[in-house]
Amino acid sequence: MNAPLVEMINISKRFGSVQALEDVALRVDPAEVVGLVGDNAAGKSTLMKVLSGVHPPTSGEIRFEGQPANVTSPHDARDLGIEMVYQDFALAGNLSIKANIFLGREPTRRAWGVVVIDEAKMSEEATLILKNLKIDFADVDALVDTLSGGQQQAVAIARALAFQPKLVIMDEPTANLSAAAIAEVRRLIQELKAQGIAVIIISHRLEDIFEVGDRVYVLKRGHIVGEKLIHETSIDDVVEMIVVGHGERYG
Hints:
CATH topology: Rossmann fold
Order of helices and strands: EEEHEEHEHEEHHEHEHEEH
Largest sheet: 6 strands, mixed
Number of strands: 12
Strand order of the largest sheet: 6-9-10-3-11-12
Number of helices: 8
Oligomer: single chain
Radius of gyration: 19 Å
CATH class: Alpha Beta
């Protein structure tokens, strides 16, 4: 049996006197789409910030491709192949699509002995990344501020793909988007899966999880209170787990 891509084992996180996570276990297999759901303050974002290196765990272990992983910073996570797409996209609106995709790691060349950004190579590579995602932008030099919310989400996903990830974490990827944009984001998630990339989706929209997901975890007050394969459960069952919570029916 192949090792999981990611295992989070007995992860706890404390902020002062606040216990944000307690003995949380989570697994993601290669090319699997996993939903992470629960009420506000359930611990979803904290758990993913532990996995992406933003917050070191107070205790517990992270394993990646079967090996212990020391994830103490976002750089450590990126080196493993973990990328996070935040709810606000974290894009620079006054820069172009291609500049956002390569922000901080722009391809360069030498001109008259000076290192400059290789605009032609950046255009070519950005176009290829977007093509691989089946995203069609007329002009990769267009400013991100001119794009719709759904298009900006596509750019954020393309930027994550530029780092050749094995796992992409998405925080509320369809929040505040139109129906057409939501359908496009779902398509992009399925495209990532088809390319062998695993995805974790933090979402309040259970419809998204059930449309594209393989498995779902339910968090409540820092504990996992349920884990189900999508084809073996229903939205009503997941809602009941969210409401009933740890220590009761699913304790």
